[in-house]
Amino acid sequence: MKTIVKYEMEKIQQNRTFIGALVISLFVLAGILYIGMYHAQLQGIERKGVENYHQIVERSTGEFTDQRVQDVLSNYIGRFQQDDVNNRGFDLFSWEVANTFIANGENIYDRMNTAVKQGETLTIDQIKVKSIEEIGFTEFEKPLKMGSFVTWKDFYHVTNQLFLLISTLSILLCSLVFSSDTSRNMNPLLLSTRRGRKQMTVAKIIAGTFISVLAFLFIHGVSLGAFALYNSGFTGWDTSIQTNFSMELFTFPVELNQLQVYGLAVALQLIGLLAIVGITLYISSATRSPFSALLIALGIFLLPKALTQLVKRGPIYHLLNLFPINNYAVQDFLTLMSTKTEFFLTYFMQNMVLTMVVLVAIALLCNWAVYQRLKQYQEA
Amino acid sequence: MQLELKDLTKSYDDTIALNRVSFRLTPGIYGLLGSNGSGKTTLFRIISGVLKQTTGTVTYNGENTRANSDAFRSILGFLPQDFSYYPDFTGMKFMLYIAALKGIHKNVAKKRCVELLELVGLEDVRNKKIKTYSGGMKQRLGIAQAMINDPEVLILDEPTVGLDPKERVRFRNLISSFSENKIVLLSTHIVSDIEYIADEILVLNKGVLENRGPSFRLIDTISGCVWETEVENDRLAGMLQQHLISNQKHAGNKTVLRIISKEKPAPEAKHVQPTLEDLYLYYFREEAVR
Questions:
Q1: pLDDT (0 to 100) of residue A280
Q2: Does A194 touch chain B if contact means CB atoms closer than 8 Å?
Q3: How far is residue B153's CA from residue A300's CA, in Å, rounded to a whole number?
Q4: Which of A261, A362, B238, B242 is deepest in the core (most CB within 10 A)?
Q5: ipTM exceeding the 0.90 mark
C-alpha cells in the first residue's frame, strides 16, 4: 500500500496543472502575507507603527477593568494633544478602545483639536466614558485580560484568506486524482489489476488528502512564522477574545483567549478542508475530465454561500452554516456558533463540535462512496 | 486451465455490441479477427472485468470471474487499446507502478521489470521519460506491463499497432515463447501477425462469433472462392465495381486482379490458394467495399 501511495503522490506532483497551481499559490500566499502583515495599517508610513504599538500595548496589558480603560484613554488623549500634528502617529490600539468606550456624540477628536488650538488641554474627566458593564462585556469568574489585539486581528484576517487559497488549491489537486486517469483512458488498465480497485482507490484518497493537509500545514506554518515576525513573537496570545476591540465580540459567551481562538479556527478549517477534499474526490471519481471535476467542485464549494443570500432563517439556513464557506472566517464562526438563531444548538462549543462531527462525517461518507464506486466501477 | 464465455451479450439501448457469444479457450494463442466495431474491444473489456455484460457469464476454471474478480485479476494480463501513459514517468517507474498494482513484491518486481524491458528491447531507455518514447516503444512498454505478473490469461487488444515490421517479428516471437501453458487472446488488424502465431482464430463479425478454428481450416472454408485473372485496362473499372478485389497489380498493359467470389468472375479466371487476408475480406466485405 505504501508503494502505491508513493506512486499516486508522484502522479499528482508531476501533473502540470498542479505544478502551475502550486507556483501561483506561492505568489498568492506572498501577496496575502505582504498585504495582511508587511503592508498592514499598523505598520504606518515610516514603518515604526508596530514598534510604537507594542510600547503602548506593554503599558496597557493587564486585567480588563474600567480603571485600565480610563488609563488607556487618558494616555491616549494626552499624547494626542501633546504630539505635533505633523508627527502624530496613528495609535490604532487606543483608537479602537476609544471607539468602543467613548460615545459617538462626544466627538473627542474635534474637541481635542479645538483645545490644542486654544492652548488648552482636554482631560479624561471632561469626556463621558462608558463602563464595561454598560457595553455589556461578558463576565466570567476571572476578569478578562486586555492586551495586544490589532496584530491578532490582522493575523485572523490573513488566516481567513489563507483558507480560500488552500481550499482552491486542494480542490484543484483533488479534482485531478481520479478524473485525470479517466481522461487518459487508463481505467481499463488500472482497474483490471489485482489492487487496482480497492488498494489503489484508498491510495489515491490518501495521496489527495495527504498533499492537501501538507499544503494546509505548510501554508499555515509560513503564516505563523510571518506573524511571529510581524508581531515580534506571540505577544497578546492570552488576551481575551472579548477585548479584541477590532472584532467587536464583547458579548461572546465563552472564555477564550486569542491563541485558543486561533487553534479553534485552524482545527475547524482543517476539518472543513477534509470535507472539501472528500467531496472533490467523489466528484473527480464521477467525472471524465479534470476540468469538469474542478468546475463542479468549485461550484459546490461556493454554493452554500450563495444560498445563504436567499435563505436567511430556519433549519435550511442553519444547515448551510455548517459548510466551510460559511464558517471559515474567525469572526463568522465565533458569531454564528454562539447565536441560537444562526445555528442548531444553544451553546458555542456544542455548535463547534456539531460542525466538526458533520464535516468529518461528510469527509468519511464521501471517501466511502468513492471506494464503493471504484470497487464496482464499470466502463460506460 | 480453461476460460469459458457463455451466451455473452452486451447491448447499449438499441445497439447490440455482442450477441450471445460463446466459446471455450484452453492454453494456446488465439487471434480475434474482426473489423472496426465488430465487438472485439467490448469482448476484451468484459473478460477483463472493466465492462459489465448485459447477459451471459465468463468463467475461469469453472469459477465466475465477476464473483471471484480479485482472484481472476491476479492471473490476468491486459493490454487495453488506446490508453495514454504517464508522460513524466520513466519506463521503469511505470512498470514498477503496475507491478505494485498487481501485488508483486518490490524486490521481485524490480528484477522482473528489468527482465521484461530487456525482452521488449527497452532496456537502454528504461530510465528515460515515457514522453520521449516513440509510438512503437510505448506499445512495447504496454506489452511488457501486461506480462509483469506472469499471467495465466493474457489479453492484448491491438498489440501490434504502431510497431514496425522488425518490432512485429520480435513481438510474435515474444508471445510465442511466453504462451506455454497460458491462454493468450489477441486482436489485430494485421492478419499476418495472427496467421503466424495464433493456434486458433476466432472470427467476430457484428458482435457474432461467426467461425473459429486453426487458420488453415478457416482458409479452407473459402477455397474455391479466390480467383486470379488478367484484365485489359478498359475492363478494369467494371471488374472493380462488380467484384470484391483482394489485390491488384500491373503486368505490362494489363492488370492482374485477385478476386473473392463464389462464382467464376471471368472466363479466363483461375483458382488460387486463399490466404487469411482473403478470409478477412470474405467475412468483412462491407468494410472492404467502403
A1: 97
A2: yes
A3: 44
A4: A261
A5: no
Give the residue from A355, A332, A361, A346 showing the smallest Cα distance to A159.
Answer: A332
Residue A338 in contact with residue A253, Cβ under 8 Å? yes
The mean per-residue pLDDT over the stretch B233-247 comes to: 82
Give backbone dihedrals phi and psi of B218, rounded to 5 degrees, phi first: -65, -40
Residue B24 pLDDT > 90, yes or no? yes
Which residues in chain B are contacts of A17 at CB distance < 8 A?
A: none
Q: How would you classify the pairing of strands B270-271 and B226-232?
A: antiparallel
Q: Which of B51, B73, B88 sits opposite A193 (nearest CB)?
A: B73
Q: How many whole angstroms separate alpha carbon B183 and alpha carbon B202?
A: 14
Total beta-carbon pairs less than 8 A apart between chain A and chain B = 76
Mutate which of A13, A186, A192 to disrupt the B interface (most B C-beta within 10 Å)? A192
Would you report the helix, strand and coil content of chain B in percent, each value rounded to 5? 35, 30, 35
* Grid cell for residue B266: 471471368
CA distance B148 to chain A (A): 11
Lowest pLDDT segment from A36-45, A63-72, A253-262: A36-45
| Nearest C-alpha in B relative to A201 | B101
What's the confidence (pLDDT) of residue B78?
93
B23 CB within 8 Å of a chain A CB: no
CB contacts under 8 A, A 28-47 vs B, are none
**Joined grid coordinates for residue B79:** 493490454
Question: Buried b / exposed e across A94-116, counting CB within 10 Å, b at 16+?
Answer: bbbbbebbbeeeeebeeebeebb
Neighbours of B155 (CB within 10 A): 26
**Nearest C-alpha of chain A: how many angstroms from B72?**
8
Concatenating the DSSP letter of every residue in A359-379 gives HHHHHHHHHHHHHHHHHT---
Contact B80, B49 (CB under 8 A): no
pLDDT (tens digit, 9 = 90+) per residue, A15-36?
A: 888 999 999 999 999 999 999 9
Segment A131-141 mean pLDDT: 90
Q: How far is A184 from chain B (nearest CA, A)?
A: 5
What is d(CA B120, CA B139) in angstroms, rounded to the nearest whole number?
A: 10
pLDDT digits (tens, 9 = 90+) for A269-285: 999 999 999 999 999 99
Determine contact: A4 vs chain B, CB below 8 A: yes
Q: A378 or A27: whose pLDDT is higher? A: A27
Select from A189, A197, A201, A375 the residue whose CB has the most chain B CBs within 10 Å, as the one to mutate to test that interface: A189
CB contact under 8 A, B102 and A194: yes
- CB interface of B with A, residues 65-94, below 8 Å: 69-70, 73-74, 76, 78-80, 82-86, 88-89, 93
Contact B160, B188 (CB under 8 A): yes
d(C-alpha B126, C-alpha B140), whole Å:
12
Q: What's the grid cell of residue A224?
A: 505563523
With beta carbons under 8 A apart, name residues in chain A contacting B69: 197
How do the domains of chain A map onto residue ranges?
2-39+148-375, 43-143
The pLDDT-based confidence of A47 (bands split at 50, 70, 90) is low
CB count within 10 Å of CB A254 equals: 18
Residue B28 contacts residue B179 (beta carbons within 8 Å): yes
Q: Give the chain B residue whose CA is nearest to the CA of A14.
A: B88
Q: Which of B194, B143, B157, B193 is nearest to B41 (CA)?
A: B157
A258: confidence class by pLDDT, cuts 50, 70, 90: very high
Distance from CA of B286 to the nearest CA of A (A): 27
